[in-house]
Request: fold
Amino acid sequence: MITVGIVGGTGYTGVELLRLLLGHPQVTVTILTSRTEAGRRVDDLFPSLRGHTDLTFSDLDTAQLKQCDVVFFATPHGVAMQHAEQLLAAQTKVIDLAADFRLQDLLQFEKWYGMTHQCPNVLKSSAYGLSELNRDKIKAASVVGNPGCYPTTVQIGLAPLLKHERALIDPTRIIVDAKSGVSGSGRKANMAMIYTENADNFKAYAVQGHRHHPEIVEALEQISGQKGLFNDLIFVPHLVPMIRGMLSTIYVDLTTVGSEIDLQKLYLDFYANEHFVDVMPENSSPETRSLRGSNQIRVALHKIQANKLIILVAQDNLVKGAAGQAIQNMNIMFGFAEDSGLDGIALLP
Reply:
């Protein structure tokens, strides 16, 4: 049994972490922080948790957090790195759901997040938490940077192609057309996110550049072992009028080798032992609603011409795209079964 702290318990990812961890057989959540709700019962703010917890929100107290085996930061960018060194000194592990430990390139981090990294040495020793692809590093790490939701779909979608011993796609001609529900922007007052601005509407955003783009590029370089090949990747995110869910449509050009091999078998073999990756039958259409509340991620392939492949990847952006993957990483770090606390069935309808 381990003790867990959650910093930032009032946001969507924070309460999703709590919901999942309350059902984890080897976890006790001992502290849940909130700057604005300190002293308030958690089940008063989130009635869905009535009867499941008697926790009360508290102020962030580093001394209390040091008593935990692991602390999750479900906070804005820049918070986790202010506390990581103190927690590590107390042998407390850190899992950050923001961007503080995602990008190894400090210049890119400063450019896209508008701040200087406060603990670059900790960053160097941290693990990037794409569970299926970095399991060994995560297991040995004391700090894990949870991937962004969009980058998770792109990496799961492309990894079998990029890990192959031969070049199967043209890395300079990748297009990612991605859609997310409004919960991806967090639980905060934002005029662009209110119901009347999003209902009956569908729009692209950050077309000229999104902070997940450099994360995707850096991650694909790590997967492929090749630098400088993915800078021309086109990534366009869209906002869909739904609460949860994410679907990325990835377009790639196949090489001669790639057009000749059995790509469906390649994906099935690559993810054969991955509990949370569901490779669907060829030409399927994964639906976001079939994954609501689940840590699964679904992949489907459509070969539309001899040298054109479309990869569809769907997930719940709050679970596999955030809180669920963070718990999956925790399970890896502490040697628990990887599906502990994550074996719930998706909700439908």
Summary: The CA atoms of residues 146 and 326 lie 6 Å apart. The chain has two domains: 2-125, 150-317. The domain at 2-125 is CATH 3.40.50.720 (Rossmann fold). The chain has a mean pLDDT of 96.
